[in-house]
């Protein structure tokens, strides 16, 4: 019965939070520096995640340092230098500190007012083995039956004006540098990338939406300027498994 109720609730949220109208993507700077790789990208599929919780155009990104070690000098304080490989069975899980995304600075893409935060959920072990992925699926279903913060983990919601709100999720526990009501400038550090909430391994979940509450808002499209590994500059959102470096505003 609980499973049926959960599936019905998820379906209702998905239908209710479909975008109401087509909108042009909003151009904003990526909320990080350095080389990252895209996953669950709206450039590859829409909805990229699901319509529920305003995730229609959300993207997941993981810090992915260059093999030659070249970086931008703004690395996190805790993360490793290379991403551990995915395993079938062993190790079942790893500590989040073993991943280069962990501890990377998360930045405000535009000036705005912080409207909501959560920062005390633990950074759990990763779910990157086959048993871990299966556990993540069950865990995600259970989290979905509770409050949105159980899915988002530690997070910040930033009101960027004109009805546009940005969500930064799966942040590191204890790393938040802002509180509700704070006004922050573009480029200000909000927190660190972590592994809280419904997360397989340390990464940043980012999305735009048309209201401050993920339970009722609708997702909004966005686009970034970035360069790929061949040095080509693009405007849009990198597709799944694309490694890229943000082009910072001049």
Explain the overall architecture:
The protein has 250 residues and is α+β, with helices and mostly antiparallel strands. The protein has one domain (2-18, 28-67, 75-82, 92-246): Distorted Sandwich (Glucose Permease (Domain IIA)). Helices cover 14% and strands 25% of the residues. The protein has helices spanning 2-16, 130-144, 148-152; strands spanning 26-27, 36-39, 59-63, 105-107, 112-118, 154-159, 165-171, 183-184, 189-192, 204-209, 219-220, 222-228, 233-236, 243-246. Strands 1, 2, 3, 5, 6, 7, 8, 10, 11, 12, 13 and 14 form a twelve-stranded mixed β-sheet that branches. Strands 4-9 form a two-stranded antiparallel ribbon. The longest helix has 15 residues, at 2-16. The chain is globular, with a radius of gyration of 17 Å. The termini are far apart.
């Amino acid at each position: 019965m609980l499973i049926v109720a959960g599936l019905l609730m998820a379906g209702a949220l998905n239908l209710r939070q479909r975008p109401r109208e087509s909108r042009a993507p909003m151009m904003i700077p990526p909320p990080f520096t350095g080389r990252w790789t895209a996953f669950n990208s709206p450039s590859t599929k829409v909805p990229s995640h699901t319509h529920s919780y305003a995730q229609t155009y959300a993207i997941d990104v993981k810090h992915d340092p260059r093999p030659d070690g070249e970086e931008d000098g703004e690395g996190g304080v805790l993360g490793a230098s290379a991403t551990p490989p995915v395993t079938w069975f062993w190790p079942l899980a790893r500590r989040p500190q073993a991943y280069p995304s962990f501890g990377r600075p998360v930045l405000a893409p535009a000036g705005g007012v912080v409207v909501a935060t959560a920062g005390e959920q633990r950074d759990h072990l990763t779910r990157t083995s086959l048993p871990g992925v299966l556990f993540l699926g069950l865990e995600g279903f259970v989290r979905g039956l509770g409050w949105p913060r159980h899915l988002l983990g530690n997070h910040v919601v930033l009101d960027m004006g004109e009805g546009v709100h940005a969500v930064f999720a799966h942040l590191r526990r204890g790393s938040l540098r802002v509180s509700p009501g704070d006004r922050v400038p573009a480029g200000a550090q909000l927190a660190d990338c972590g592994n809280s909430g419904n997360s397989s391994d340390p990464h940043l979940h980012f999305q735009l939406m048309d209201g401050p509450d993920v339970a009722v808002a609708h997702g909004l499209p966005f686009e970034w300027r970035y360069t790929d590994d061949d040095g080509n500059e693009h405007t849009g959102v990198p597709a799944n498994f694309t490694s890229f470096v943000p082009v910072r505003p001049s």
